[in-house]
Write a structure and sequence with these properties.
heterodimer, A: 683 residues, alpha+beta, Alpha-Beta Plaits, Helix Hairpins, 5 domains, six-stranded mixed β-sheet, five-stranded mixed β-sheet, B: 121 residues, alpha/beta, Rossmann fold, 5 helices
Chain lengths: 683, 121
């Protein structure tokens, strides 16, 4: 029989990628001074798992690198090797190489064998440079750190090999089971220990095997609680004595019939095994854990569900509208049924939308590495604090917010946090902090990137703005000044660093966030720090809109872009070249976009003082949209116009209204742009 | 009625491979993602053979073996440990915990079938 292994490759790739990601975040979270045993174990286990699966599925290069990595990690977690900063660097680099190998296997590309050789050499050098006194004991959790938990005298002997202890209990047979349980639990808290099967249940001598690294004197102390002191014997184990029947093969079986369990033989079936009663170890905060049971579903399937729900919502509101003309008394049951349908539809819509939601930890998890690498490069000390990793937002947004956020963080590291010497001179702690926060507020998700650096410099920004010919004046509020850094090509960095000199400015960040229907705000105080706040809608599939009427047509304006709506008075209208093109609102001249003109709609109001002006903002520019009337505010399901028809300038998408009519959703950014370019230069 | 095997491994790919291989050979397979899950599934089901990985989060293979052997239901059920370590030490520990035998990782499907057939036919 032959099994086609390639059918498992995809699962392996995803699994290995997850292990690599978790290994990276664990490595970054590791405190080199006092590494947490659980974390070291988890890192080891990640490498170990990749090695096991990679070997099974025939990815030998992956298996080779993980093998070296695993053996190093194994020695570290067993306390045979102290972890150093250069090791973390090498492990991270190994992670990068493994990711590249994984990608090469996945996409059918070629991996760079030189890179593999280089990392193997680098890792081996770390192994070679260390003392090689560690025994080849089998893995069992938490040896190193557990040993550090108990107070030990200054000079203590540690058994390099596994220990075997034997003793005779100092009590009745009835009490034996409980005593042995307690002893194993106690021992297990320090070193893994196992009971060796006794020759017969009548044998008074009990035998224990304790993992390498155990301290015989402490073991003796524990045994003395339950055993006769003169009966205790502790020595190196004789592993050969209990050898298996087939020592070299790929598999083997022990005795023909499995031995009766030691404890069960003594009549203690109910006794919980030691490892289960083991008290919780202190562990550092770990990355947000994925749900314990989950299934992987193709995104297309979820999107299809979202679409169908959209249709259902529309059908439901069409039904509701038709039924509203029916006599509520005569059709009472129909109305009740429709009300029920509305509730169910709404619940179902929420439930389906929540499937697309992912915790933002998917994005946040990459930042520890970004901060670490960049801070190292710039000679800064920076601690990244993240809160709200569990905050959920739409998968589509998760993918698109990653780059803008990375840019904001790089900006904070590069321009915000000072170098340690400057910080000390200012009376600040040498290590700067970047605080990354996510939370829900109303129908939005808010992401904050804050630093405790020098803050923005008002004078520098104004000077730079003047140099670039931007219309600025000294009376501008701080808030307005800060927004200038989002202007194209704006950078006040005194020296062009590798980071700031990449040619991608904050304007791109702002544009990308705006394209997601979000916006950025800045708060800053000189000497105290800067905080950038990104607000995004929770989802891309539904939009809060204002419906407006022009003639017989209905259009939807995304609510996020609306600043205010007002009735124009004759005095506010200014003409340019004889055409009414501007309105004067609160000291600002806003270009007017008349929808009836743009879309050639007949039968609409033409006089600007008869209709309504909706003041819009997009990309930092404003415009006034002239419409007949405002109809109402409601969430609309977004339908792509491009995939159903074609792209239309000034329109971003379409939706279906409750009465079954199609309404077009306005592309505010494009409208504002049109308004600006339609104006004569003089304005 | 086909014999049912419990396959315990935290690696999804290995678990799927093991399950697929065993099912192709006519066994029923129940999967568990770690020792704790394995113990729970073993308690609520009935298995002719248990295959378990050693290194797993929450509860490792040796602890699972010890815990299963403490249950009357699994006092004599064959249990095989799948391990990357083939050292004498590992074998001694597997034996002490009460395992029936071991299979060294990485293994190919044929080897798996071979040892399973040898144990439960």
């Amino acid at each position: 029989m032959s099994i086609d292994m390639s059918q498992f490759y995809q699962v392996f790739f995803e699994e290995a990628q997850e292990h690599l990601d978790s290994m990276e975040s664990l490595l970054l979270g590791l405190d080199i001074g006092a590494p947490d045993a659980e974390q070291l174990n988890a890192i080891f286990r990640a490498a170990h798992s990749i090695k096991g699966s990679a070997g099974t599925f025939g990815f030998t290069d992956l298996a080779e690198v993980t093998h070296i990595l695993e053996s190093l990690l194994d020695r570290i977690r067993k306390g045979g090797l102290a972890i150093r900063a250069d090791m973390i660097d090498a492990f991270l680099a190994a992670g990068d190489v493994l990711k590249a190998l994984l990608a090469a296997h996945r996409d059918g590309g070629a991996a760079d064998p030189a890179q593999v050789a280089a990392i193997c050499q680098r890792l081996s050098a770390l192994t070679a440079g260390a003392p090689s006194s560690v025994s080849a004991a089998a893995p069992e959790p938490a040896v190193a750190a557990a040993a550090a938990q108990i107070p030990v005298p200054a000079a203590v002997t540690v058994a390099p090999e596994e220990l075997e202890a034997s003793f005779v209990l100092d009590m009745d047979a009835d009490a034996a089971v409980g005593a042995i349980d307690n002893l194993l639990a106690e021992l297990d808290r320090h070193w893994p220990a196992t009971m060796i099967k006794r020759a017969s249940a009548d044998d008074p001598r009990w035998r224990l095997r304790i993992a390498a690294g155990a301290e015989p004197e402490i073991v003796r102390g524990m045994l003395e609680f339950v055993a006769r002191s003169d009966s205790i014997r502790i020595g190196a184990t004789d592993a050969k004595a209990s050898d298996a029947d087939d020592s070299d093969g790929a598999y083997g079986l022990f005795d023909a019939v499995p031995p009766a369990p030691t404890l069960a033989a003594a009549g203690s079936e109910a006794a919980a095994p030691p490892a289960l009663t083991r008290p919780e170890r202190r562990s550092a905060p770990r990355p947000a854990a994925a749900a314990e049971s989950s299934i992987r579903v193709d995104v297309d399937k979820v999107d299809q569900l979202v679409n169908l729900i959209g249709e259902l919502v529309i059908t439901q509101s069409m039904l509701a509208q038709s039924a509203s003309t029916l006599d509520p008394v005569k059709f009472e049951r129909l109305h009740a049924g429709l009300a029920q349908l509305e509730r169910n539809t709404r619940d179902m819509q929420e439930a389906v939308m929540s499937v697309r939601m992912m915790p933002i930890s998917a994005v946040f998890s990459r930042f520890p590495r970004v901060v670490r690498d960049l801070a190292q490069k710039l000679g800064k000390q920076i601690e990244l604090r993240t809160t709200g990793e569990d905050t959920e937002l739409d998968k589509g947004l998760i993918e698109r917010i990653s780059d803008p956020l990375t840019h904001l963080i790089r900006n904070s590291i590069d321009h915000g946090v000072e170098i340690p010497a400057d910080r000390i001179a200012l009376g600040k702690p040498p290590t700067g902090t970047i605080a990354l926060k996510a939370y829900h507020q109303g129908g939005s998700i808010v992401i904050e990137v804050g630093d405790d650096g020098g803050g923005l410099n008002r004078h520098k920004i104004l000077a730079k703005a003047r140099e670039r010919g931007l219309p600025v004046h000294d009376q501008m509020s701080d808030g307005e000044v800060w927004l200038l850094i989002f202007e194209p090509g704006f950078s006040t960095a005194e020296k062009v660093t590798e980071v700031s000199g990449r040619g991608v400015g904050m304007d791109v960040v702002k544009r990308n966030i705006a394209a997601m229907g979000g916006r950025v705000e800045i708060e800053s105080m000189t000497g105290i720090g800067t905080r950038m706040t990104v607000r995004l809608p929770l989802t891309l599939a539904i939009l809060d809109g204002m419906s407006v009427a022009v003639g017989k047509e209905t259009y939807i304006v995304p609510l996020g872009h609306i600043l205010e709506s007002l009735q124009v008075e004759t005095g506010m209208i200014k003409s340019v070249s004889g055409v009414e093109r501007l309105i004067h609102v609160r000291g600002e001249y806003l270009p007017v976009v008349a929808l009836y003109e743009l879309f050639r709609i007949s039968g609409s109001k033409k006089r600007l003082d008869e209709g309504i002006m909706v003041v819009l903002e997009a990309d930092g520019a404003k415009a006034a949209l002239f419409v007949d009337a405002l109809l109402g505010q409601h969430p609309v399901v977004i339908k792509s116009l491009e995939s159903n028809y074609r792209k239309v300038p000034g329109i971003s998408a379409a939706t279906i209204m409750g009465d079954g009519h199609v309404a077009l959703i306005l592309d505010v950014a494009a409208l504002v742009q049109m308004a600006k370019s339609a104006l004569p230069e003089a304005a | 009625m086909p014999k049912t095997i419990l396959a315990v491994d935290d690696s999804t790919s290995i678990r799927q491979m093991v399950a697929f291989t065993l099912k192709t050979s006519g066994y029923d397979v129940v999967e568990a993602v770690d020792g704790m899950d394995g113990l729970n599934k073993a308690r609520s089901g009935s298995f002719s053979l248990i295959l378990t990985d050693q290194n797993m989060p929450r509860m490792d293979g040796l602890t699972l073996v010890r815990s299963l052997r403490a249950l009357a239901q699994y006092a004599t059920t064959p249990i095989l440990i799948l391990t990357t370590e083939s050292s004498d030490d590992m074998k001694a520990r597997g034996r002490a915990a009460g395992a029936t035998g071991w299979l060294v990782k990485p293994f190919d499907p044929q080897k798996l079938i071979e040892v399973v057939k040898k144990v439960i036919g």
